Amino acid sequence: MDLTNIELLKLQTSYMKDDPTTKALCVALDTELQTIVNSLTKILILSQVDSLEEEILDQLAEDLHIEWYDSTAAIAVKRALIKNSDKVHMYLGTPYAITQVVNDYLNHGTLQEWFEYGGSAYHFRVLTTAGDIADSDLVVKITRAINYSKNVRSYFDGFVAYNTHAALNSYTQLALQSYTHAQLAAGI
């Protein structure tokens, strides 16, 4: 049965088809059923976020009122922001919402509240790897998104970038090698 073109009057018995009340009800219900069927096809779009084109994602973000959405972001980021928008809307103004937005943009990041690092009351910062926030445009975009998702009384102190263990380890090895070569060259 094709629900997009359903006509309830055709489903009635021949006696009921002649009844004026039945005719009126069928016409009225046909209109309502058509509205429901049309809304069902629109709902299915959310389950297909991973396969939607970028223009549709931008429109969908506008329709869903995702204020922290950035239309110039990478398509993977756009998809993550749309998928998680319900969770962020539900917990807007909480550390969870901020962390979710940061993770949608960076794939990881840790929110650190003021009492965890000795900052001023109601302040927070985000810890992430240095490579993730090397682009100043990205920092501006994420800061804007954080300001949309935080509560009004909280203040964002910024990002704290750290190196991963592997990056720090390779830096230490290079520094030791340079030091050793300098000692050898000097005859020490």
**How are the strands ordered across the major sheet?**
1-2-3
**Uncertain segments:** 169-188
**Whole-Å distance between the termini?**
90 Å
Helical content stands at 55-70%
Quick check: average pLDDT?
83
DSSP summary: helix tally: 9
Give the SSE string. Answer: HHHHHHEHEHEH
Shape: elongated
- The proportion of strand residues reads 5-15%
Write the layout of secondary structure elements.
Elements lengths: L13 H4 L2 H24 L10 H10 L11 H9 L1 H6 L4 H12 L3 E4 H4 L5 E7 L6 H14 L5 E8 L2 H22 L2
Parallel strand pairs: 2-3
Antiparallel strand pairs: 1-2
How does this model look, in words?
- This protein has 188 residues and is mostly helical.
- Among the domains are: 3-45; 86-166.
- The protein has helices at residues 14-17, 20-43, 54-63, 75-83, 85-90, 95-106, 114-117, 136-149, 165-186, and strands spanning 110-113, 123-129, 155-162.
- A three-stranded mixed beta sheet has the order 1-2-3.
- Helix 4 runs antiparallel to helix 6.
